[in-house]
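Hi C.,

You asked whether I'd gotten around to modeling the 151-residue construct. I have! Everything is below, sequence then structure, no commentary in between.
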Amino acid sequence: MSLYRVASRRSRLLGLLVPAIALVVGLVVGLLVGRATAPEPSLSDVLADEASHIAEARTALDVLTIEYPQAVSSPTEYGGAQEDVRHAQDALADAGDLEALDPSGYRQATALVAEVAALVARKAPPADVEARVRIAEEALAALPGAGSDSG
């Protein structure tokens, strides 16, 4: 008499499921251990990142001062000027970590860039916009890590 056993679907499923679960658990544990041992960014790393955003905002404001005099009389150029202001505001928002280092300076710079945006929105005279841009750029340059040589 011969004895044999028919392999059941259940044992095959279990044979596939156990290694899959072990793989998922291993990946989760590896991810958690890797994240726990990852180095924290240094203050200079954070400042360098924020400084690049500030430089981007200053560049957008510089471009605005070049484009805005023509923008007052040209709808196409005016759209570009509005985009320059939005770009400066977005870049400054991306540098929001600076608010923890210099809350009043960051708020002042943000308010000044918002004033520039308001002037552009109401199509103020180019001289008024340029004067406010220069003040905003000084506030941006005074932020931690921004330095006065960028832009």
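If it helps when you're writing up: The mean pLDDT is 84.

Thanks,
B.
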